[in-house]
Design goal:
mainly alpha, globular, 8 helices
Length: 191
Amino acid sequence: MAFEQHLRDAIRINRDRRRVYAPFGGAGLSRALVFLERLSLPIARAFERLARTQRRRALLELTFVPMKVARAESPTLYRGLGGRAQRRAARRLLGQLARNPRRARQVLGALIELEELHGAHLAMSRHLVESVGRSQAVIDRLDMGGVRFARALLAVQLAALPLAIPLDARAQRVHARGGGILVNDLPAIVF
């Protein structure tokens, strides 16, 4: 239940933290995140059902990390609004990743530079890039068994990339007011 559990934990975290982020204008974004996570649950359940073999179950466990997150009240590093230039550059980088998931490390590094340059977080973009990078790393270590299943999982993650920039833009408005939405709510994913 790695994929489904990851989403259920995210739903719980976002519901619990809605009250914390409401004074900073983040309640609407919290509701939107819960909505998107709930929409993703049937996809997660489908993958869980397909993971009948021990190998596929292990692939799910390797791909999805536990939701270990920072305290909601933790301050953010940046409080800026990235603006059109940051969004355009980030969109271009995510497009490169969609075309070649093996570029996840380079894209992640470039996103971090964009955050520093504009003084504004791209937390959801970074989270999805890390997730894609982890999935690609799992695929690269596989022999022939389970590759199609793992690539299907990767395709689902790549399909979510267009959602990242609009969510980051909304989150930046909350960061500007002192709320840590997304930055404190997403686990670090090592790949």
